[in-house]
């Protein structure tokens, strides 16, 4: 019988075992089913707390899941039955902002938007902005290599991480990366840990890169298309032009309808898809005009333009609007930018063949789509039917040279699909690394890789 | 007695064993001493040749070094006595240019400048441009995570690599990365292998990212400073402003004098340092004016401006000019961008204290400096004296939060200094990975990490 007494003695006040608390810390924001109650939750207040937690888990051979704000969409932070949950939410200190080197040093539990706000005081910005960024923690963003709207211009989370503090499975603490712009000493452990979904170590602090807040007038355009595939062609053309959008998002008719019922923004549902793009630069007006021209060339029936980001509102609420409709089974595929039109055609065909609506919004400029199936009937059969549709979508994305996850991570939800994307030799290379860092297999086992 | 007969029988490429050939393939462009003649050189013509080579080396427990054009500056490609050299120089095919996704697929032996030239036909550019890029191969650039002049704007080699084909130590072939802009499936093996200096596997092909060739008028400025540290302050100010230079390079008086004797460009040696920057954008003139203003604020006595890149000529030949002066012992430190002035002050002090000239040029915008000691006397004592000076420089860079290598790699030259930068736990994490991929220790042993 494993007892948490020993751990509780070492970490007074930081071990939760009340079942109500255990339930609260057991799930994430995905449809991944809870696996049973964990033995305990460690609400870490320091890197040493985390180290003590993994050492205890190792001695008792207990699986560990790591949790920030619980906003993950792939089941990566769901508790293991009889496992240990390590929560980093209370390690929420911004340790420093260094404007002269455009860096911020933060603990893993800091809310991502708080970093951006602190940077703003120096005219700087933390760029990656996943939809959850007002709730999610930087540690969770790092674990999943999160994306977001602004990533089309600034890159994803890994492009903004300069260094990490990581607790390994044996409790050792390592520091990766550098505060210099260039560094070729040692392996790129920073990039290895970013996106490793808690399977190699637990990120307890990070040094992140900041960029100047974009200067210039924000000019936003919205284009309406007769088909999602023509909108896809417009995106390919824009991304292959010389203009660099701040944001380039797509919504199809089904998602526009759902959004307008949830939170009317006056968006017309006449077209099959709308594309919303924003430019902020010294040449915003000209850049938006180039994009508008490319949209018309691709078949847009209507293009309107506005200052500021009022046109982006519908896109911003689309996730919540879908959630309000019932349980949402969504996926996170990405395709090469030149295959967007093909992917939208495939979605149309699957929707028609299967007789089911597949509302889709997309970080279009990154080729990253979130097609969803709304589940209104909570039976196992309804779930299975939705999963089957998502599998069809994923297979098609892979056949177009795409990936089964662009920004949410593999977690537990897509773990069974890994072999669709990674060949056996490449998968084995992943397992070499996993085994090297966690030979006992206690860190987020059976998920991620 | 180990024989290469067995190996020769299974290859498309050739096995060289003639001593004259062995000598030719035994060194790189650094001051690293040859370690003795290898048993053989395998000039690979295919990925399968490389796999056969490493399998043969594994069976015979022979160390393998990997070689592109031999332009490396850290001794990473120097042959092992009785070892196997695998040359990738004949694997020099550009497999595809995909302008719609801004990608190129290339074999490891392609000359880096050839990729850029092929991309130019589509209005695209392969950005990283190490000084050697007309001779060096993309495989070598990837192995060292090479930098270059344009990296201040576009990032270093790793930022331009989307995916790799790699032969592992056991002859397995894996493929990493994705042709999508976003992908979070699996560990970032691509970044792990970039910069791993042949210690984890042999990169045989790569998918690299292309960017639009910069549009707009090239405007170059050259500013003269009364001290290198004031030039450093100007660089910090420019890099913390909103302008983004295409190139931002620094030369101190000692290197200007050497260049002007080698290849007169009319550059004055009045100042203690000159800074050369270039802008290519829709606002080149305005951006250059901002930079010029920041230079004057930092103490520049003279700022001139010109179209095109005539002002860059002196910087482009500086490496060759130094080489022409005798053997060059140079280093490759980098410091955080806000510590540049401190680093230049430290160089001045070391030069004065030791009574030795330390001509320095720098990828200043990246905080990456190449201080050199010219060795005219080829005695062991002269070498040791130069190494001692470089150690002082490296120690100072590290104390400023810097790195001992910004772009050249660790190789054999800096292998003994690794523990100055990596603490024992972090170093041990590197060795876990090395052991996981190369348990026998045949791939570039005793170098890199």
How would you describe this structure to a colleague?
The structure is a homodimer. The longest helix of chain A has 20 residues, at about 380-400. The model of chain A has no long low-confidence stretch (mean pLDDT about 95). The first copy, chain A, is α+β, with helices and mostly antiparallel strands and about 450 residues long. Chain A contains 15 helices and 18 strands. In chain A, about 35% of the residues lie in helices and about 20% in strands. Chain A folds into 3 domains: about 5-85, Uridine Diphospho-n-acetylenolpyruvylglucosamine Reductase, domain 2 (2-Layer Sandwich), CATH 3.30.43.10; about 95-210, Uridine Diphospho-n-acetylenolpyruvylglucosamine Reductase, domain 3, CATH 3.30.465.10; about 215-400, FAD-linked oxidase, cap domain/gating helix (Vanillyl-alcohol Oxidase, Chain A, domain 3). At the A-B interface, strand 9, helix 7 and helix 15 of A face strand 9, helix 7 and helix 16 of B.
What would the keywords be for this entry?
homodimer, 449 residues, alpha+beta, Uridine Diphospho-n-acetylenolpyruvylglucosamine Reductase, domain 2, Uridine Diphospho-n-acetylenolpyruvylglucosamine Reductase, domain 3, Vanillyl-alcohol Oxidase, Chain A, domain 3, seven-stranded antiparallel beta sheet, five-stranded antiparallel beta sheet, 18 strands, 21% strand
What's the short version?
Two copies of one chain form a homodimer. Chain A has helices spanning 5-10, 19-24, 47-60, 112-120, 138-144, 151-154, 189-193, 228-239, 253-262, 284-297, 313-324, 340-354, 380-399, 418-421, 424-437; strands at 15-16, 40-43, 64-67, 84-87, 94-98, 103-107, 124-125, 161-167, 173-177, 202-209, 211-212, 217-225, 247-252, 273-281, 302-307, 327-330, 360-363, 368-375.
